Amino acid sequence: MPCLRLSAGAVVLAAFAHAPAFASDYPSRPVRLVVGYTAGGGSDILARVLAQKMSEGLGVQVVVENRPGAASMIATEYVARAAPDGYTILLGASGALAINPALYKEVKYDAAKDFAPISLVASLPVLMAVNKSGPAQTLPDLLAYAKAHPDKANYSSAAAPFRLIGEQLNLQAGTRFQEILYKGSTDAVNAALANDVLATISDSISIGAGLKTGKLKAIAITSRSEHPSFPGVPTFTSMGLKGLDMQLWQGLLAPAGTPPAIVDRLQREVHRVIALPEVRQRYAGMGLDPETSTAAEFSRLIASELTRWSDIVKSAGIEKL
Questions:
Q1: Calpha distance 124→247 (Å, rounded)
Q2: Where residue 66 sits, what CATH number does that domain have?
Q3: How many CA atoms lie less than 13 Å away from 67 in the CB half-sphere?
Q4: Which tens digits make up the pLDDT trace of 45-101?
Q5: What pLDDT digit, counting tens, does each position of 19-42 carry?
Q6: Beta strands 199-203; 126-131: pairing state
Q7: pLDDT at 210
Q8: Are 293 and 228 in a shared domain?
Q9: pLDDT tens-digit readout, 181-235
Q10: Which residue, among 264, 24, 177, has the nearest Cα to 272 in the 3D structure?
Q11: Would strands 88-93 and 199-203 be described as parallel, antiparallel, or unpaired?
Q12: CA 93 – CA 192 distance, rounded (Å)
């Protein structure tokens, strides 16, 4: 029987002949940008600004797809299991990628292995706010009220980072605030606007929208110093509360196994968009700090944040849910 012999070079050429022409053909159809929170919330608004400009640069529609629930774990797992072809990508947040694994027993994705990081998009502080008609209008007054009325001490929240801030506040101040969890930051802030909760802890985008109604007052922020988007709002640190100086982040990720050429194409487009003056101005107006990274830098950040938040949860004595 005749035997067919192929050189190593021929084998390589044959493999490439049957592989999709990712670099030249991508993208050839709409790209889905999955967001783990409800429409109208902070992450959603950030994503839609990004998607609109990326659509222009990629030449195809970038469609925002909201898959809220389970502290963004539904959306994050969905993208982790998606085809690694660049047509389903995630707006991943520090909560879902770095904090959920520290807080929850059943996280059905590995933040360090199941994704191909593309680039950071922005970082942002977290704020605590109260209704202006509520019983406390400063953080010291709120803490005093919470201690005097422990049955009324609660706050609305929509993500793992906000719960950790609440738990850290309880640890530092000796309070017993209870978290009231909502599907999205908009819902959480609306609960404070309706006086359904004593306070709300949320991202700068959603709190900023609530402040514009004139009914909310921001009483503390997690930035290390006064944030230019929120002048006059004191930091937790300035009031003697430790462990509450932190910046959250958002970035784009694809499923693990996505070809490097596609990751690179998306990264270049993200960097182009974030450098646009109109995008930077829009993000700054939302209380965001626009920033980008390489894929390797983003990967290292996720790894370091996984360790950091795991240590915080352990030191605070918080049991996994």
A1: 5
A2: 3.40.190.150
A3: 20
A4: 899 999 999 999 999 999 999 999 888 999 999 999 999 999 999 999 998 999 999
A5: 444 456 999 999 999 999 888 877
A6: antiparallel
A7: 87
A8: no
A9: 988 888 999 999 999 999 999 988 888 888 989 999 999 999 989 998 899 999 9
A10: 264
A11: unpaired
A12: 23
Question: If we measure between CA atoms, which residue out of 124, 74, 121 comes closest to residue 253?
Answer: 121
Residues spanned by the domain of 178: 126-239
Show which of 206, 239, 272 is a domain's final residue.
Answer: 239
Structure tokens at 158: 């929509």
Give 235's DSSP letter: B
Type of residue found at 44: D
Name the H helices within the chain: 8-17, 22-25, 42-58, 73-80, 94, 100-103, 139-148, 160-173, 185-193, 204-211, 260-274, 277-285, 295-316
Q: State whether 117 and 253 are in the same domain.
A: yes
pTM, full prediction: 0.79
254 and 195 both lie in a single domain? no
| Contacts for 35 with CB less than 8 Å, ≥ 6 apart | 43, 44, 47, 64, 65, 66, 67, 75, 91
Whether 23 is in a domain gets the answer no
Domain check: are 202 and 256 in the same one?
no
Same-domain check for residues 285 and 300: yes
Residues 115 and 147 in one domain: no
Residues 161 and 259 in one domain: no
- Measured in whole angstroms, the distance separating CA 35 from the mean position of its chain's CA atoms is 9
How many domains does the chain fold into?
2
Q: What is the dihedral of CA 320, 79, 165, 51, to 10 degrees?
A: -170
Instruction: Strand 126-131: give its sheet, edge to edge.
Output: 178-181, 154-157, 199-203, 126-131, 216-221
